[in-house]
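Saturday, quiet lab. Running sequence design on the structure tokens for the scaffold JK sent over.
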């Protein structure tokens, strides 16, 4: 559970945090985890897209599990756009025409966005408009 990309938090039956993997700590920005309680964290966790799942062993309640999707990590609109484009490129095997079609944009628009992220050698290109 420590190495999952998604955030995982486990609370005991008293609502006290007993485990949080690195992704959950990164997403919540929580440095003092031991003092945190589910009732206090719930609004923030739900805002981040977290899902609370009760943990049971037979009829005995063990506590609660909170799953925070990696997409819950705070991001700007530009970062979310970039992530969507990169995910689509992975799904299509890097085929630009197919990626553009999947995203509902023209190849030219897709190409311009990719150019704004860098020119292939790691240096910035364009005016950075996609990062605004």
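Result came back. Writing it out in full:
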């Amino acid at each position: 559970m420590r190495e999952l990309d998604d955030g995982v938090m486990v609370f005991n039956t008293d609502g006290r945090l007993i485990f949080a993997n690195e992704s959950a700590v990164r997403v919540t920005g929580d440095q003092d985890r031991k003092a945190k309680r589910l009732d206090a964290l719930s609004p923030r966790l739900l805002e981040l897209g977290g899902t609370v799942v009760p943990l049971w062993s037979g009829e005995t309640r063990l506590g609660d599990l909170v799953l925070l999707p990696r997409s819950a990590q705070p991001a700007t609109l530009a970062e979310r756009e970039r992530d969507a484009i990169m995910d689509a490129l992975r799904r299509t095997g890097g085929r630009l025409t197919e990626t553009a079609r999947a995203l509902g944009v023209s190849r030219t628009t897709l190409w311009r966005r990719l150019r704004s992220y860098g020119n292939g050698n790691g240096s910035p290109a364009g005016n950075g408009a996609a990062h605004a």
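Notes for JK: Residues 43 and 72 are 14 Å apart (CA to CA). The chain has two domains: 7-72, 77-131. Ask whether to fix the surface positions before the next round.
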